[in-house]
Design a protein that fits this description.
globular, 6 helices, Rossmann fold, 4 strands, single chain, 4-stranded parallel beta sheet, alpha/beta
Length: about 140
């Protein structure tokens, strides 16, 4: 299974739909592990330990990163879903995903199963293509 992870507004849901159209089995978030522990009050060592356990399973996790704060905010304002508390800190959560990835990379903990895809300045078609290329 492939899980697309990242902050609100990064394009996970649309990218997942595009990948499913190509026959790729994927999900928008892993709620039990990644989303549950990708919080500011969860220390890095606890977060990383949970992810290491998950990466031992037959999964591939894609961290979608968008470093354009204004674009993230624009996408969130355009959504038809109700605004939530996480929306206000989408850029900060984006940084948390990035920092977690960089920590795990620097400690050789990716196990070839955690991939970062930078979708900054990409439209949704380009984002889906970038994720597709990363998993091939």
């Amino acid at each position: 299974m492939i899980y697309l992870e990242g902050t609100d507004g990064v394009g996970k849901t649309t990218t997942a739909a595009r990948l499913k159209e190509r026959g790729i089995d994927c999900a928008d978030r892993h709620l039990d592990i990644i989303s549950k522990y990708m919080l500011f009050d969860v220390p890095m060592d606890i977060r990383v330990e949970k992810y290491i356990q998950l990466l031992k399973q037959d999964v591939l996790i894609i961290f979608m990163i968008n470093d354009d704060r204004e674009e993230l905010e624009r996408r969130i304002k355009m959504r038809s879903t109700k605004h939530c508390e996480f929306d206000d800190k989408s850029y900060e959560y984006n940084c948390l995903y990035k920092e977690t990835y960089e920590y795990m990379e620097s400690h050789d903990l990716l196990n070839g199963r955690l991939i970062k895809v930078n979708v900054t300045d990409l439209n949704i078609t380009q984002s889906a293509d970038a994720v597709y290329n990363a998993i091939q």
